[in-house]
Design a protein that fits this description.
Blueprint lengths: L1 H21 L6 H4 L5 H15 L3 H15 L2 E3 L4 E2 L4 E2 L5 E3 L4 E2 L4 E2 L4 E3 L3 H4 L11 E2 L4 E2 L4 E3 L3 E2 L4 E2 L4 E2 L8 E2 L6 E6 L2 E5 L6
Parallel strand pairs: 1-4, 2-5, 3-6, 4-7, 5-8, 6-9, 7-10, 8-11, 9-12, 10-13, 12-14
Antiparallel strand pairs: 15-16
Helix pairs in contact: 3-4
Length: 199
């Protein structure tokens, strides 16, 4: 019993250290306690074993409590999370039932690690995976969606607003198309500007 408590304390300290390391706005461990994603992460550590033992209702109840306390981090109790997961801002993040998240992963707000859709999932064979697997040290940017039973390799960066529905090899990055600027006028004619990266 004492060993379990010591291990849990070590994990909590590790979680706080990760917040301090990855959030430049946080100045110390006491402030790190206020990181929005931590209630969802900590309650997931209780709900996941319950889910795996078939106690689905209390597991989902804890998951909902974590979602409420975190301001919208929705981690299904069935998801498998690696150590040192950091969810910056912790708003509107979804991690699906059989998603696997590696070690040292960073997710930004409004990220979905989910399924393609019920209309497709209903055609899958029983036990067939529906959600992504993210390797170690993956970073997923703001409003990105990684959907379906895809593999994202170690050390990948999924850029903001990207939609990933296929495998991403280790060490690669995915970027969404850049925006165009419209509506400027020069000598009475409309001008379209393209970001330098698109030229």
């Amino acid at each position: 019993m004492i060993g379990v408590m010591l291990a849990a304390g070590a994990r909590l300290r590790e979680d706080l250290r990760v917040v301090v390391e990855r959030d430049p706005a946080v100045r110390g461990r006491s402030e790190a306690l206020l990181a929005p994603h931590l209630p969802a992460l900590w309650l997931h550590r209780v709900s996941h074993p319950l889910h795996m033992r078939g106690h689905r209702f209390p597991a989902r109840l804890l998951s909902l409590l974590g979602r409420f306390l975190s301001g919208g981090v929705d981690i299904h109790p069935g998801a498998r999370l690696g150590r040192r997961l950091f969810i910056d801002h912790g708003a509107a993040v979804v991690i699906g039932e059989d998603a696997v998240i590696g070690t040292d992963v960073t997710l930004y707000h409004q990220v979905t690690i989910g399924a393609v859709g019920w209309w497709k999932d209903r055609r899958r064979k029983p036990g067939e995976r529906r959600h992504p697997t993210l390797g170690d040290r993956v970073v997923v940017g703001v409003s990105a969606s990684v959907l379906g039973p895809v593999q994202v390799g170690d050390d990948c960066v999924i850029g903001a607003h990207s939609l990933v529905t296929g495998d991403v090899p280790a060490g690669h990055s995915v970027r969404a198309a850049g925006s165009e600027i419209h509506g400027g006028r020069k000598n009475g004619t409309s001008v379209t500007h393209f970001p330098a990266s698109m030229k």
